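We modelled each protein-ligand pair independently. The example shown here corresponds to the S-adenosylmethionine entry; the chain sequence is given first, followed by the ligand as SMILES.
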Amino acid sequence: MSEQLRLSAPVVMGVEGLCADELRRAGFADVTAEDGRVFFAGDLTEAARANLWLRTAERVQILLGRFPAGSFEELFEGVRALPLEALIPADGAFPVKGHSVKSRLVSVPDCQRIIKKAAAVRLGGVYGRNELPETGARYQLHFTLIRDVCSLYLDTSGEPLHKRGYRAESTLAPISETLAAAMVMMSRRRGDRPMIDPMCGSGTIAVEAALMAGNRAPGLARRFALERFAGFDRAAFARLKTEARESETAFEGEIFASDVDPEAAELARSNAEKAGVGDRILVSVGDLRQVRYPDSGVVITNPPYGERIGDRDESRRLFAFLGRVTAARELGAVIISPDTELEKAFGRKADKKRKIYNGMIRCDLYCFRPNRLLKKA
Ligand SMILES: C[S@@+](CC[C@H](N)C(=O)[O-])C[C@H]1O[C@@H](n2cnc3c(N)ncnc32)[C@H](O)[C@@H]1O
């Protein structure tokens, strides 16, 4: 199937620019961003390539249509008018999910029901059936209703893209792989420079940094929903995967990960092994004030979000330490935290600050360039 589609990658708010950069660097066409998503153009094989390579996107979807929907009637007619049969075959299963924001149609279950009905009427009409069996591949529909405008998407990813297939379940509070990748990108780390996460938890940031430095496609170890789509070019996708394997590179920069909790360090070690970068990450146990820091490179970390006063005081002591240790060396830092006083504790203003949601928690991504560059500027 080489039909050009409008593809879309939903992202965590604040990451749109980084995802758009990723797409442009990878040669995707017509890249534009809006709040919480990035659009681009391509066919199903390009959608597969995006699934395989995007590090910051939550999924890859196909925009089926966008239309005003201030009433159930408009919603029904809008969906029924879409050429769904171009992608969904007679036996395709087409469940519907979605959400509504600042719109007159607030009931998500009612919208789901209407969209399902309209899609069934459309497809039933085209395929000449009163009942559709839905016994074939899954074509998950996602709708968004934003200010009375409905956008209908077809998901091509299946499991969300942050599920790379390397991370074990844990009781720690891990950052998502997509956000960890965004932090590494924001640090502008070069693969030949050292990096340290001194509060590594399950090691997500270090693993993402290693995958990136080695030019490893983040989706190589998993499968995607579109692999079961009618008309999907499996041979082309196999070639893309082979090319991805062949484009992996060796890298020089050391990656250090440490945590005060031995269990966390052990988990980081095993996750790095599973991701195939166990030999690239040096994991150790220790308080961040005791571990050894490289003379140059970058600290990228996701500290605990202490809500209680005592915790907050302790985390500010940790920020103050990181401020001193980076100022004394040629070290930059990227830290994600909900603490609005972080810069004060760290001892200097961030060179870049980006509002971002870590799950439901409103945070800032603070980016401090190495001291050397600050002095030059
Ligand atoms: C939010 S978690 C990091 C999660 C990690 N980014 C991941 O993806 O799993 C914060 C980590 O900081 C560690 N930590 C807290 N205080 C520390 C300290 N003083 N020195 C080193 N590690 C510390 C905790 O043990 C915890 O694993």
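Residues 373-377 have pLDDT under 50 and may be disordered.
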